[in-house]
Amino acid sequence: MARIGAQQQIETDKWTAFEVPFSFVNGKSFDPSKEYMYTIVFSSSKEGDMFNGAVGSTLYIDEVELVTNQIK
User: What whole-number distance in Å separates Cα of residue 15 and Cα of residue 18?
Assistant: First the structure.
């Protein structure tokens, strides 16, 4: 799972570059012999993924890159 940290959850009117590393979820492991699907969710405000976002918030997304490495 990769989730932006609380310190990066700031209101701004400027482009902000950041990286969000993946970390394992407790009780889960990576099996390189299996196929996986990713879901990427962007939200213009905190809890926006749960439809609890702030009215009038705007989010611009540019140049998204998902980089994966096989873990052995």
Answer: 10
Collapsing DSSP to helix, strand or coil, 7 comes out as helix
> pTM for the complete prediction?
0.51
- Nearest CA among 58, 66, 56 for reference residue 36: 66
**pLDDT per residue over 11-60, tens digit each?**
778 887 878 877 778 888 878 888 888 888 777 766 666 666 667 777 78
Distance CA 45, CA 33 (A): 37
Cα distance between residue 46 and residue 26, in whole Å: 24
Q: Which tokens hold the place of 4?
A: 């932006």
